[in-house]
Amino acid sequence: MAEGNGLTYAQAGVDIDAGNRLVDLIRPAVRSTRRPGADGEIGGFGGLFDLKAAGFSDPVLVAANDGVGTKIKIAIESGVHDTIGVDLVAMCVNDLVVQGAEPLFFLDYYATGKLEPEAAAAVVAGIAAGCVEAGCALLGGETAEMPGLYAKGDYDLAGFAVGAAERSRLLPRAEVRPGDLLFGLPSSGAHSNGFSLIRRIVADAGLAWDAPAPFAPGESLARALLAPTRIYVKPLLAALKRSDKILALAHITGGGFPDNLPRVLPKGLGASLDLSAFRPPPVFSWLAAQGGVLEAEMLRAFNCGIGMVVVVARDGAEEALAALHACGEAPAAIGEIVAAEDGPRVVTRGTLAL
User: Fold this and answer.
1) Taking the model in full, what pTM does it have?
2) Which phi and psi angles does 137 have, rounded to 5°?
3) pLDDT tens digits, one per residue of 213-235
């Protein structure tokens, strides 16, 4: 081919050298996620995982994928990139543990208009930190530089997690009955749901991301709202090993209690929640007051302080609670299972202490 001053890929907006630099920057973070079954190396065309080395005898694979919604806009606009990757992992692995599965490995997809290796490396460092917290290997990922599709500085994330459970230990269990009890595990804040509403409330209030957070003294608004989603994997897996009286788990994400609790309950059953049994963290009180958000909308848009619900057999409640406490959790009794042949499957009593 004749030499000349032809147009290059970099001039079109895609910098292959920046991609290679990113791989070099994230290699130590990826290696930190090594676990039995995976060596924590990247660079090949596909990642390998050895189920036998992970200790399973009759495994069922469980897969989940998710993103972080418009929470990512706060990270982009504030320049705080080091926590959003934890959210990405959390949203996927929490969906695995509700089925009794141990997360094995994680893959990420990072898309941007122009790759900025340092910002991307901060995001991936957060992903690696989330994987370490969840006990899974960061097996690989993809970085896509797509000029013209994303505005300058924008990026988006998607995550993919695969876990495994012994066939006999899958959740939810079929023996959920009316009268079984519901316990809530505290959230770390809004997690990664409701952020389109949160951003609208912040915009209407005229607040900048570097302004002091009205509900978190000593923190900027961005840092306070970007508090990472809690990862419930290790304490719940430990509790499930200690007690078979935990019958189901529900990850409270988009749709809140009304949409997520029915997903883990048998047909004909619902949940009765006592809203006065727990106190939402200050961020929710501020959002409700600042935005004039009604209680019903709060319950559907946000977790309101309960990020995971544990369904416990009534006759084994003491054992299950002891298992949760032993694993460092502080469960709150928030309701019970009820018959729900007709009408809404989640009913409430009391009011949120907002």
Assistant:
1) 0.92
2) -90, 140
3) 999 999 999 999 999 999 999 99
